[in-house]
Amino acid sequence: MNADRFKYKEITDIILRSFYEAYNELGDGFLESVYENALYIVLTGYGLCV
């Protein structure tokens, strides 16, 4: 597949990168709300309004 065809590729890349940053920092075993808060911090750090 040609990645240039995707309309929201840039923002999708930021979201996925943010998820992996938060998960790699925290590891596993936390409640979903902990990951949600961590993801919020990372996404806003990239300048996204969430």
What does this structure look like?
This protein has 50 residues and is mostly helical. It has one domain. Helix content is 64%, strand content 0%. It contains two helices and no strands. The chain has helices at residues 9-26, 32-45. The chain starts with 8 loop residues before the first helix and ends in a 5-residue tail after the last helix.
Short key terms for the protein model shown above:
single chain; 50 residues; mainly alpha; 64% helix; elongated
Task: Tell me briefly what this model is.
The chain is mainly alpha-helical and 50 residues long. 64% of the residues lie in helices and 0% in strands.
Span between termini = 29 Å
Q: Report the radius of gyration as a whole number of Å.
A: 13 Å
Instruction: Give the SSE order as H and E letters.
Output: HH
Largest sheet: none
Query: Can you give the mean pLDDT?
Result: 93
Hey, roughly how much beta strand do the residues contain? Answer: under 5%
Question: Domains counted in the coordinates: how many?
Answer: 1
